Amino acid sequence: MDHLLYKKSMLRVVKLANVALMTLPFAVAWYLCYADALASPYFAKGNWAVIALFAAVYITYGRVYDGFQISLNRISESVTSQSLAVLIADGILFMVTWLLTKYVPAVPPMLAVAVVQIALSAVWCRVAHIWYFKTFPAKRTAILYDQREGMEKLISQYGLGKKFEVVAVDDVESALAKDLRILDGVDVVFLCGIHSHERNVILKRCIAEDVQMYLIPRIGDVLMSGAKRMHMFHLPILRVERYDPAPEYVFAKRTVDLLIAGFALLVLSPVMLAVAAAIKATDGGPVFYKQRRLTKDGAAFDVLKFRSMRVDAEKDGVARLSTGEHDDRITPVGRVIRKYRLDELPQLLNILAGQMSLVGPRPERPEIAAQYEQELPEFALRLQAKAGLTGYAQVYGKYNTTPYDKLQLDLMYIANPSIMEDFKIMFATVKILFEAESTEGVEEGSVTAAR
């Protein structure tokens, strides 16, 4: 067997071991505490089916939260992702057990299972991390850039130095003038914001010489990612067009919006009442805050939020983005509700009214959008789809991700609309509630990134 294939096969085994470790405590609790309590107890096959269901749910959410990406995640990130996945799996199976019994199942055994699973996850993540980087040494890496520099700093900042050993950095014109000798002896190359012609030359060379390529795309590349493959004139054709989802997708998306937003309002109404009371008690000002935002095709609407800033936050009439936790306009209550995204809950009413969707590009203020479009005219392309409560940019970026990069993330979502992707983003949104960096502000005056 090829040595690399053997290593990759072992990686699969290590990941399967994680699934087995997470499933074992549940299986033990099921047999000891729950199996015999069913209204009609199962035979062996039925019990195994329940255990297999747990494993399937855990794998599904583990993938949603990127819990199995040993090489790209810090140990703490993997533990957080797997903990969320296992807690959701435990919760779903607890509800299944409830449906199969005549009374509410015992809660302590399932809580004990969760504690053991999280502890096992921490051990697995640590051991797997050590094993991975001993088995897969850092790849010799070259970085080529055009208008975006600093990839080597990002590799260090995100703790990926063990995966990518940067041995060469150059601008694309210089590298091409040297006949791409920078690729000699490297395993990986990062292309950062390079134009399509130069990118294609490098791509062909990488494929020919078995060099793995990571590409930070330009806007045109992202738009092309949604191209439909077809055949015409006996030729391969790629069709690219404006966002035009299928009618069944639009109907399904609206149905999901109504069902989930309605259910969420019902369940979260006590929390919303408590937040409203806390805001009113702080300074006696209004509980809600309306702000003009843009949605599909540039239509304007008033987004509804819990007020998190002073009443006079924009008394001079100038629209400003928050600069994060150091913004002195934010009230004490506002800091708490922003941290846990509670200020966004009233937007469920915007969703029911059809002004927003659960998933889509976040709605921007007309004044801020106009500022961005002065330097980044393509920013208006976000308005192809209805604005959302959460979106691709919120899940995979963070608050201070540049407008250029947020635009690319949103366009990646718009290019490939699907209900499954919507659900994946909704579930992934839960994870960012536990990540402090996703609530950071932006530097005052920051508008666009290098293009």
From TrEMBL:
Chief subcellular location: membrane
InterPro entries in UniProt: Bact_transf (IPR003362), EPS_sugar_tfrase (IPR017475)
Pfam families: Bac_transf (PF02397)
Compartments where located: Membrane
Transmembrane residue ranges: 45-64, 84-104, 110-133, 258-279
GO cellular component, one term: membrane
Topology relative to the membrane: Multi-pass membrane protein
GO MF annotation: an example: phosphotransferase activity, for other substituted phosphate groups
Keywords: Membrane, Transferase, Transmembrane, Transmembrane helix
Coiled coil stretches, renumbered: none
Residues annotated as domain Bacterial sugar transferase: 253-434
Record-linked NCBIfam families: EPS_sugtrans
Family assignment from sequence similarity: Belongs to the bacterial sugar transferase family.
PANTHER family the UniProt entry points to: COLANIC BIOSYNTHESIS UDP-GLUCOSE LIPID CARRIER TRANSFERASE, UNDECAPRENYL-PHOSPHATE N-ACETYLGALACTOSAMINYL 1-PHOSPHATE TRANSFERASE-RELATED
Annotated protein name in UniProt: Sugar transferase
Gene source species: Candidatus Gemmiger excrementipullorum
